[in-house]
TrEMBL record:
It comes from Simplicispira hankyongi. It is found in: Membrane. PANTHER family: INNER MEMBRANE PROTEIN YRBG, SODIUM/POTASSIUM/CALCIUM EXCHANGER. GO terms for biological process: intracellular calcium ion homeostasis. The lineage of its organism: Bacteria, Pseudomonadati, Pseudomonadota, Betaproteobacteria, Burkholderiales. This is Sodium:calcium antiporter. It is a multi-pass membrane protein. Gene3D superfamilies: NCX, central ion-binding region.
Amino acid sequence: MNSPAAVWLAFLACAALIGAAGYQLSLAGDTIARRTGLSGNWIGLTLIASVTSLPELATGITSVTLAHAPNLAVGNALGSCVLNLAFLVVIDMVHRREPVWSRASRGHVLAAAFGVVLLGFLLLGLLIGQLSPTSTEPTTHAPRWNLGLMTPVMLLLYVVAMKVVFVYERTHPAEQANDNAASTLDAAIPPLRRAIVRFAVSALVVMGAGLWLPFAAVDLAHAMGWNRSFVGSLFVAMATTLPELAVTLSALRLGALDMAIGNLLGSNLFNVTIIAVDDLFYRPGALLADVSLVHAVTATSAIVMTGLAVVGLFFRPRDRVLRAVGAISLALTAVYLLNTYVIFLHGT
């Protein structure tokens, strides 16, 4: 068994690769999108959100196939959701000119609402899965399916969400925030072919690191005596959301606030859908029937945090507590910390 120092070194090296390659991947995706004429909100919600979620996708598939760690897969995806919502607090702290809730476009409410619906179906699937008969119960029960009941619903709902948000953006252009700061850099944007090459290379690095990550996380859980749900929901989630954080901070430097928020909310839509994709690769049975019920706490926390974000986007509070962050951001932080504490105590 490797020493704790070696295990931590491997985990941090994997996280560093994901962060560096994920940032390059996001820049290349942004370039490709702008060269093809897509808007800033659509870039953040779809293209950048999907490519920055590649680590969660790679980690999830590897966890349920090679690493045989279903709790790690679900914990990583849901942990990434609550961490992305916690990044809204970072945006609020960094965006000093005015509270982020009073500046962001109300169009983000639609993506957030779909996020709540997706999380709700996932929570329903988790609870139904826990009520399903296990393999140790009498064979008179109905046989278990190899696919969760909510998996097809979640996959279809993600497609519907992308379509509805796209149509809304096309029909309500005046309501979308204008990220002009990014458009001033058009002369410096690399050619499309170069961006595609950078995108492909960075994607390979992210996928490779994502394949390595679950094994490093399992070793970390063993070395530190922690449960896998906690490691997946906190440490693996932190590593796989490094691309989202890198993109968020980069977009803020460019003044593209709505791109940053769209990336986080779009990543959450994709992350929840990743659990449905993981279920397709999980052969022992329905994925949500074989994981700890403690993940319901993380799913519920993500729903509450998304609801708080919707309140902030609609109500647009301008207050700041101690001139630092708004009350909505404090509430988001409190829910995130509570979720982490519960997962640490009761995870498996």
